Amino acid sequence: MTINFIRHGKTAGNLEKRYIGRTDEPLCDVGIAEIKSIAYPDCDIAVVSPMIRCVQTAEIIYPSKRTVICSDLRECDFGDFEGKNHIEMSGDPKYRKWLDKGGMAPFPNGEDSVSFRIRCVNGFLKAVSENKADTISFVVHGGTIMSVLEKLAFPHKEFYEYMTENGHGWLTVYDGEKITITGRI
Q: Taking the CA of residue 62 as centre, how many other CA atoms within 13 Å lie in the half-sphere pointing to its CB?
């Protein structure tokens, strides 16, 4: 099965390098223009996070395709860091502590990274099993993509090695057990 992983287009928060997880922020004009300028692979079904930025991205890329919303593919809840950027938090001891742990500690008053990753992988596996198709495009979040690929891609790489720019992503093949990356979007 061919799987395309596409990160949503840019939002105002993305332009300002803010932690935007649970905030349901729409695409900004720059994000819409960038999405419209990229040639995306075709698909049979688009599986989409329920967040407006992902829904809008999928509507632009795949206006005539069947879309399936999967709530488990939403971005992480960044807790106290939500809506802020690294400059605003540079003096925050909670942020320094989180950075010192390699960005792997739970977000203060937010979601912990282990639960988030498990949720994303389970959401992916459920979506694939419930939506039989030759090609599925997942229009989701950067953290969602990193979670799924870290767990299932072969050869294995670490979470942050799958960082994806807005509007871009990965072309892959999924054999029911592992994901093989075949290219970039």
A: 24
* DSSP states of 98-146: HHHTTT-SPPTTS--HHHHHHHHHHHHHHHHHHS--SEEEEEE-HHHHH
Burial of 26 (C-beta count, 10 Å sphere; 0-12/13-18/19+): middle
Enter the pTM of the model: 0.93
pLDDT tens across 49-58, in order? 999 999 999 9
The residue behind tokens 């959401």 is 123
Superfamily of domain 2-184: Phosphoglycerate mutase-like (3.40.50.1240)
What are the sequence ranges of the domains in the chain? Answer: 2-184
Residues of the chain with pLDDT under 50: none
